[in-house]
Prior knowledge:
The structure holds two protein chains of two kinds. In chain A, 78% of the residues lie in helices and 0% in strands. Chain A has 22 helices and no strands. Chain A has helices at residues 4-20, 24-39, 44-56, 63-75, 79-91, 99-110, 116-133, 138-149, 151-154, 159-168, 172-200, 214-220, 224-239, 245-263, 268-302, 304-315, 319-336, 339-356, 361-376, 383-392, 396-419, 422-429. In chain A, helix 3 crosses helix 15 (268-302). Chain A is globular and about 75 Å long. Chain B is mainly alpha-helical. Chain B is built from five helices and no strands. The two termini of chain B are 34 Å apart. Chains A and B meet through helix 1, helix 2, helix 3, helix 4 and helix 7 of A and helix 1, helix 2, helix 3, helix 4 and helix 5 of B.
Amino acid sequence: MEDLGIISLFLFVLFLLLGSGVWIGLALMGVAWVGMELFTTRPVGDVMLTTVWSASSSWTLAALPLFIWMGEILYRSRLSEDMFKGLAPWLAGLPGGLVHTNIVGCTVFAAVSGSSAATLTTVGKMSIPELRKRNYPETMIIGTLAGAATLGLMIPPSLTLIVYGVTINESISKLFFAGIMPGILLAGLFMLYVALVSKFSSNWNPAVEPKMTFGQKLTNSRFLMPVILLILVVIGSMYAGLATATEAAAFGVIGSLLLAATQGSLSWRTFIDSLMGATRTSAMIALILAGAAFLSLSMGFTGLPRGLADLIAQLELSKFELLMALLVFYIILGMFLDGISSVVLTMAVVEPMIRQAGIDLIWFGIFIVVVVEMAQITPPIGFNLFVLQGMTNHEMTFIARAAVPMFLIMVLMVFILIAFPEIATWLPDNIRQGPR
Amino acid sequence: METHWLRRLLDGLYGVSSFFAALSLLAILALIVLQMTARWTGEVFPGAPEYVGYAMASASFLAFAGALNKGSHIRVSILLNALGGAKQRWLEIWCFGIGTAIAWYFVFYAQKFVYWSWKFKDISQGQDRTALWMPQSIMLIGAVILAIALTDNLVCLFIKGKHNIVRDGVKDEGEAA
């Protein structure tokens, strides 16, 4: 690293702008500008425009608004009601009973939505009152919901993975497939935890569900079938190599519009609301990505990424030690920043390190998503905690404490991923090559 | 109290801009569907990925101002929430000040960028052969409207002591971050 003084000034501006509350996308642009002015003699403004234009006008990026829109449509459909009614009869017999509807419901909705907040609200809207009525322990209802909703970030479609893929220029479809097995495994771990608590906890005495015949169960879940079908079409079209991620997203939007229409929950109002909502959320992320693209370029000139990669090489950290350092780093960062911002902000610096250490970038995408998921349920800024606070009127501390076991399960998941990387890499290595 | 004509004009501008952003999103969907249909029927739709890219850029840039006024753009608000009253107002002025400066800086170079694209008749590298100044001017328009929206909020902070950002419920990822 050439000049520590200038680098510190650069980092100071970064923390100043972000910390004082300047909108993240604009703050990144500002920091990048400072970096360019300090480290190069290039015409900064012109370089900025070229970078931002090519980052914003991208075919791959178009998957983002479409997947957001798909989630917005289904969020406004009656899926929320159907989810609980359809899942409850099948899960009532398991040890842990209907608490599993939280986890399975989140897993299913995660497969149509890329955001953990939308997953949380859609599932929680019905399951919180229903589970309370049946006298399940409140900490379990809240905790499992907070934890399982983070699956929205991992199970495809995942906005975080799209952003990660666009940032490091990796195939979105591959990343999506890498997320499937870890996502299901994580859901399984959550369910195992619920089952164990139900066996060993002393205040576990929920109301017993009435017995249902197989036919009744099917009738109750008939509305869920179209959603499952939609998931299979979207994921299947990518798996079979029939469609790219962007094209699969278009399938998803049309499918969910049809689904909402046949359910009778598609009105002009909900159509417009979902479209405008998707436009805004996607613009929010696009602004961050535009800023981040310029910042990556500028970071390159500061020599910071190379310097740090060399430093790591000199320290001769093992892969495991490096990953542990990154784990702690991202958990701390995640206390203050949301997942997408943490990813784009750090990738310019972290990517060379990861490549240097010989870590697979697809695998690392899943690693980073698990870590970012943890950030969703850690105070002071854990987004799922905010949403749950709004929904239940509990104290933030109560919700955060209820989510602690889920946090620990995710830490366990990180170690499982490190020990068995194939969980993430096997599927993407075996998909058929898609168009282009 | 009757709304000032300038207020109505500005809000109208943000509305129209958001409307065209939504249309661009619809265009993305339509283009992708056309492209897939073409592929399945053995036809070619030359330049579809490029057109989708242009629509993506306009969907984003035209929505920036609307997203700002609805509080969709995320920021780290710990400090803002911790401060109250006058201090919070000064911090907001700082944020909008920085934001406004960056946005107008972007606009200045964006108009230069579009002008040179037009002057040199820059053509897309893809199969679409589009004259690039056309899609690029939509980015410029969006950037100008964002800069106006930021300036608008900054001026309101000075005059009325508060900005015009109104959140409509918590739902988008990271809005509260």
